[in-house]
Amino acid sequence: MKNNRNRRAGSYSRRHVLQLLAGTACACCGSVHANKLAYDLTATEIASGTWAVHGRSEYFTLENGGNIVNVAFIEVPDGVVVVDSGPSRRYGEALLQLIEKTVPGKPVLRVYNTHHHPDHFLGNQVFDRTVIAAPQQVIDNILAEGDGFADNMYRLVGDWMRGTAPIAPGLALEGDSEEIGGRKFSLFYLSGHTSSDLVIRDDQTGVLFSGDLAFYNRAPTTPHAQIEVWQESLQTISALDRELILPGHGLRDDSGASIEQTADYLDWLHRGLSEAAASGLTMNEAMALPVPARFQSIDVVQTEYQRSVVHMYLTLEDDLMPLIDVK
Ligand SMILES: [Zn+2]
Question: Whole-prediction pTM value?
Answer without folding.
Answer: 0.86
